[in-house]
Amino acid sequence: MKILITGGHLTPALAVIDRIIASSQNKDISFVFVGRKYSLESEQTYSFEYKEITKRNIPFISLHAGRLTRFLSYKSIRSILRIPLGFFHALFVLRQESPDIILSFGGYLALPIAFAGWLYRKPIFTHEQTMHPGLSNRIIAYFSKKIFYSFPETKKFFPSGRRTILSGNPIRKTVFEVRKKPFEIQKTKPVIYITGGSLGSHGINNHIRMILPNLLRDFIVIHQTGNVKEFHDYDRLVRYRRTLQEDLRNRYYPVEHFFDEEIGYIYSIADIVVSRSGANTFFELIQLRKPAVLIPLPWSANKEQQLHGNFFAKNGLGEVFEQHEQSTKLLEFIQKIASRIDTYKKHFLKLPFQIRQDATDTIIKEILNI
Q: What's the order of all strands across the beta sheet hosting 220-224?
């Protein structure tokens, strides 16, 4: 059996792929992944998805397609004109690969693949991570045999009936396991893990730089900076670290990127997390019961990150800091959580709905049972 996987949400896709590969019962299953080979930054830099998929020795096909955007500009018009080319390319890919199943994780590249799969009468499955699905997944849902979704309130956006399944969001297994330690930390103070995602966040990095000396008086700080070439944040923060007095310097760990096998250790020692509020982070924090200060991406689609952050704050799991606010407020939120951390942790046991922890198995069972 050949499974073609595509979509913009890579982490749940990897969780499903890794679980199938690890199972001794699935040795006759092969994969092909359709995605974006190069990063949005540069046509010379491989994308994160390309690196992760090829690392698993899975064939990777780069699809060139346009996307619908909310605002018209020269760039968006060029993108819209590429939409027909994407559909023809998808038809070629489907004819060449002839997969038995198509598993989509949303996004603009998944739409032409799903449509081509429908024309070729291939069974299509799609998963939605967020509370409010994007346009692509709403369209793909009409072609799909099964529609998996992560939040109870998401169901209303999809066709009614037995095709919809509340699966939860597949979580990468590595967040629960200490596989590799990038460094050893003596926990003389509470540990804060700060991340702006795999690429980092210049906005978050600037806020942390402003409050870092005060933060380091009370905390050990692990700071995943990313290193967007335009800003060189990692290099800048490493240089700044050298200017700190020795006791503070020894409590600051700026890191450009953590590999998948390292993240379990980082989560295991972190007392508080400061991060964006994307769906992957949202579900990981809930399953690990980590209080957090969430900083929603201001321009996230459908304000999904704002919705996730609001859910966290409303249920007493953490605080929401808006990127445009003063850095001192971020420091106050961190100190507030640290002073009442047991109270925040107890709130994870009182959530209004049960977060499904078997999402990966639920999806695999459905797609293999055709």
A: 252-255, 220-224, 191-195, 272-275, 292-294, 318-320
Among 29-43, 48-62, 320-334, where is mean pLDDT lowest? Answer: 29-43
Average the pLDDT over 145-158 and give the result: 93
> Which has the closest alpha carbon to 63: 105, 112, 98, 135?
112
Residues 6+ apart with CB under 8 A from 335: 218
User: Which residues, listed in sequence order, are joined to residue 104 by a DSSP beta bridge?
Assistant: 6, 126
Length in residues, the chain: 370
Strand order in the sheet with 124-128: 60-62, 30-35, 2-6, 101-104, 124-128, 146-149, 164-166
6 annotated to bind ligand: yes
Report the DSSP beta bridge partners of residue 294.
275, 320
Fold of 175-350: Rossmann fold (3.40.50)
**Sign of the dihedral through C-alpha 6, 8, 14, 16:** negative
pLDDT at 59: 98
Distance, in Å, from the CA atom of 268 to the CA atom of 252, rounded to the nearest integer, reads: 17
Confirm whether residue 172 is marked as ligand binding: yes
200 belongs to an annotated ligand binding site: no
pLDDT, residue 75, reads 61
Is 11 among the annotated ligand-binding positions?
no
82 is in an annotated binding site: no
Look at residue 359 and tell me whether its pLDDT is greater than 60: yes
Fold for 2-168+356-368, please state it.
Rossmann fold (3.40.50)
Please indicate if the annotation marks 362 as binding a ligand: no
Cα–Cα distance measured from residue 277 to residue 296, given in angstroms and rounded to the nearest whole number: 5
Cα separation, 359 vs 365, in Å, equals: 10
Task: Count CB atoms within 10 A of the CB of residue 206.
Answer: 14
133 close to 154: Cβ distance less than 8 angstroms: yes
Model confidence band, residue 24 (pLDDT cutoffs 50, 70, 90): low
Q: What is the pTM of this model?
A: 0.85
Domain residue ranges in the chain: 2-168+356-368, 175-350
